[in-house]
Write a structure and sequence with these properties.
alpha/beta; Rossmann fold; 6 helices; 21% strand
Length: 175
């Protein structure tokens, strides 16, 4: 079982940059980057391009918007480190797969992801957003997203060996 680092925080708090900084501990080892973003519009395409530019060239990138647990299992004998960026977009992507109001399929997906991370022989760095710190969203879809991401974050945090909350570019150790 490898170490699992969960990095959370608000928008533009430095999560992805910190993940890459921590990934330098595995320099010259087999490093994979699992990206969940989809370029559905020009702004997202630009963000993806910026993230690609910021990553070291020795990462092998896998773009997977849905099947994270399966990707992690497939990297079992190939990786020393896997960076997953990010769970926020993954949950958003899953909302398109499971549009009903039931949380059960999301909890099953989150549980499978946490189990895959815990069973992995490689180290993992997982990036996610903290969206439950503000006011209660006024529309049902936003409330559902907030709840689903919160439950997903909890599942991964339970499996994590370390949890970092990014605040204004600075890491604060939570676990």
């Amino acid at each position: 079982m490898g170490q699992i680092l969960l990095i959370t925080g608000g928008a533009r708090s430095g999560k992805s940059a910190y993940a890459l900084e921590r990934a330098e501990e595995w320099r010259e080892q087999r490093r994979f980057f699992v990206a969940t973003a989809q370029a559905l519009d020009a702004e997202m395409a630009e963000r993806i391009a910026r993230h690609r530019h910021d990553r070291a060239s020795d990462f092998t990138t896998i773009e997977e918007p849905i099947g994270l647990a399966g990707v992690l299992q497939g990297l079992e004998r190939r990786a020393d480190l896997v960076v997953v960026d990010c769970l926020t977009l993954w949950v958003s992507n899953l909302m398109g797969v499971y549009p009903e109001n039931s949380a059960a399929p999301f909890l099953a997906e989150a549980g499978a992801l946490a189990e895959a991370l815990a069973a992995a022989p490689f180290a993992s760095i997982v990036v996610t957003d903290e969206v439950g710190d503000g006011i209660v969203p006024e529309n049902p879809v936003a409330r559902r997203f907030r709840d689903l991401l919160g439950w997903t974050n909890q599942a991964v945090a339970r499996a994590a060996t370390e949890v970092i909350l990014m605040v204004a570019g600075y890491p604060v150790r939570v676990k």
